[in-house]
Amino acid sequence: MWRQLFQKLSAEELAISVVSVQELYQGKSSAEGKKEKDLQIAISLVEVLPYSYQEAVLAGKIVRESNYAVGFVDAAIAATTILNNAQLVTLNPKDFMGIKDLQLFDLKTLPPSAR
């Protein structure tokens, strides 16, 4: 998916939450040599957005006010996205259902092989 995003958008238009970085490294596949190297390269090309007090406050409110079960990580990622006036790229849009002010990037605009 990274390659297709970079083909559609410039690196200046992309960013990643530091919480998303952790989530990606938790995946077992990131321990595989080439995949980890590809991940490191992709992350190095974009801005890494911090998670601080302001994001934590909004994430807490998202969890508190949601009608759906929103986990810590998803709330943190959503809050970071909202506070940076960005769109969230995700393969799991259902995890972010009903979060006020959150804009999702439509992956359908990518070629089918990227989804």
* Reported CATH architecture: 3-Layer(aba) Sandwich
Order of helices and strands: HEHHEHHEE
Distance between the ends = 6 Å
Approximately how much helix is present in the residues?
40-55%
Return the CATH topology: Rossmann fold
CATH hierarchy class name: Alpha Beta
How does the helix and strand content classify structurally? mainly alpha
Number of strands: 4
Mean pLDDT reading: 89
Radius of gyration: 14 Å
Strand order of the largest sheet: 1-2
- Percent of sequence in beta strands: 5-15%
Query: What is the approximate shape?
Result: globular
How many domains comprise the coordinates?
1
Q: What features would you describe in this structure?
A:
With 115 residues, the chain is mainly alpha-helical. It has one domain: 5'-nuclease (Rossmann fold, 3-Layer(aba) Sandwich). The chain has a two-stranded parallel ribbon. Helix 4 crosses helix 5. The chain starts with a helix and ends in an 11-residue tail after the last strand. The model has no long low-confidence stretch (mean pLDDT 89).
